[in-house]
Design a protein that fits this description.
By secondary structure, the chain is an alpha+beta fold. It folds into two domains: about 190 residues, Gcn5-related N-acetyltransferase (GNAT) (Aminopeptidase, 3-Layer(aba) Sandwich), CATH 3.40.630; about 190 residues, Aminopeptidase (3-Layer(aba) Sandwich), CATH 3.40.630. About 20% of the residues lie in helices and about 30% in strands. Strands 1-2-5-6-7-8-17-9 form an eight-stranded mixed sheet, sandwiched between helices. The chain has a six-stranded mixed sheet with strand order 10-16-15-13-12-11.
Length: about 425
Amino acid sequence: MSSEAVGIRSQSSLSAMEGAEGKPEITIRVYNPSTDRAGTETVDRECEVGQPGGMSLHADLLGDPVARIRHSPAHLMLVAETSAPPRRIVGVIRGTVKSVATGKSCPGAPAFASVGYILGLRVSPSHRRMGVALRLVGHLERWFTLMGAEYAYMATDKSNEASVQLFTGRCGYSKFRTPSLLVHPVHAHRLRAPRRAAVLLSLDARDAEQLYRRRFGHVELFPADIGAVLGNRLSLGTFLAVVVRDDDGYEWRGVEHFLASPPASWAVASLWDCGGVFRLEMRGASRLRRAAAAASRALDRAAKWMRVPSVPNFFRPFAGWFAYGLGGEGDDAPLAAKALYVSFVNRARGRAAAVAVEVAALDPLRRRLPHWRSLSCAEDLWCMKRLGGGDGDADGWDWAKSAPGQSIFVDPREV
């Protein structure tokens, strides 16, 4: 949904000029794709993730700065621009609004709430510590409120002290959840599936939506428009793993039969092609590191039977896949989840360099998911706050300060 579709018909309706004590005047306004693309790409490039003088992770949005939010039902991108000529974009921020499950089980509690999600906040190094980020966040939060959002949340690396201090300090957010981002590289050889048998099935979008709504519609941050997510062109399908005994098979008789009489242990997950939105590239690696990675790939290709843990070519633009909607039931559900994830990594050969999944800290499926610690983030940090002030619902409940549940739904449109 464009800014015009939600009633923002000119740049002036969400703009502000501020300047004091010698600080440059900054205008906060809606992103204009016809004039702002080069400027926003420059800011993104200046803020590549990494340590000064070391390796950094570059994200190429394929010429579309709005790409990371375009697939959400309501989205907005703002820019911060210097007011004095020559005008220059020095900051960007992106946001989305949607309805999601709260995961709250208290009697009379709201099952769903409208939330705003903040992502892609960037400020040029030349204009940091001038309040630009604070102004961008404030303007985006006001748009969230106009759109009816009750909460706002964001995700960051807990080691990013500047980001954590901005949101938990100056912006009033609470530390909300600490999910784990698990990443596994894609090799030339196939990963071994679990020894115990697991039957893998592909579900059509309609069956997948019904299964998700009936079994996981209460999971925290489950999107009300799950059908739109599953039907998106970037969604590569939904897959079911059923653990069976010995050589027994499993016959799919439709989603209604499955829901009425589910197997003892199973897991489900969907795949999202992040490569259709952005490409990543690791920059600043030494020649020795590049050579070692290339040697591992050459050996893996030449002798797949050795199952060499080769390092993909992360040093040129590469695509990644994201597994979302991971859930399951039964004592052997973690085994079924592992079977799914292994199949995703194998499926990605020749199409992506890595497969990632994000799971809640308390999720029982997490312990069996294969991943490389060097590529993963054990504790991502999500922060949330209630918009409009107040102490929460009539019963005093504030989602931003609630205890975490076992599972969480990570919307692939916000990766």
